[in-house]
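Methods — Computational structure assignment.
A single polypeptide chain was analysed. Its primary sequence is given first, followed by the predicted tertiary structure written as structure tokens.
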Amino acid sequence: MITLENLTKRYGDTTVVDDVSLTVERGSITVIVGTSGSGKSTLLRMINRLVEPTCGRVLIGGNDTAREPAYLVRRRIGYAIQSHGLFPHRTVAENIATVPRLLGWETSRTDARVRELLTIFQLDPEAYAGKLPHQLSGGQQQRVGVARALAAEPEVLLMDEPFGALDPIIRSKAQDDLLDIQRRFGTTVVLVTHDIDEAFRLGDRVAVMSQGRLLQHGRPAALLTQPADPLVARMTGVADRAMKLLSLITAGEVAVAGASDGPTVAATDTLRDVLSELLWRGAESATVVDPQGNRTGHVTIAGILARGRPA
């Protein structure tokens, strides 16, 4: 668990981060979202002490990070940025192995970890381990950057606009990869973005910042239905708030007992996707099935639309 207590950062008379407190649960993804200059990247960098706070403290697992050398703190924290930051004259394998070698891992253990991560990120070790960064596509560089951040099995992964430079199709795939990897390793992730849709897609909880202050921190559905500030309401969008809310709820969560003569949908499908399917087929309801193909109930258009109305 990460606890930020009254974090403040000032540069002269300018307050960049203003008395921010929040808790990031272990094994979760928290996304910090805000416009340029909101203080979100500075807040992220205070977690791994790339920026030292003017006041306040950061606790990881209950331990105050200020009580040990900054370089030791950083070796336990993965860090991935938009430009990937790969060393241009080192191979993919050498890039990924950077922190394990700093930590003194045995060569066999380091090599095994590099191969494991390349395989997980769908980069064939035989084909990619010896390549240089300039020989990779943007999406491949991004995956190597995240693999390097995860190489030493960190407690925490910090990501600063990691997908900002990718085109929309590759970006969507990269987001899916992150969710898969996070579920696989159970890593605690703190991610910064300016994209509210990305924040809602990735975050278990979302923190909205403006002018250095934390406006609201909570689950995506809470930000949509109970915005605590007019800026939060504007960022989440009035016109498409219902559709965003439906994209956060799965069919399995709301299925009710009974049969349907309509199409079959997966319990993991979002209500937004189910509504599109029903409207396309001209059906009023759909049967919901679990991953084993067992019926768990059904959902109706009326029930879906009711779920899309903010409380």
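Note: The mean pLDDT is 86.
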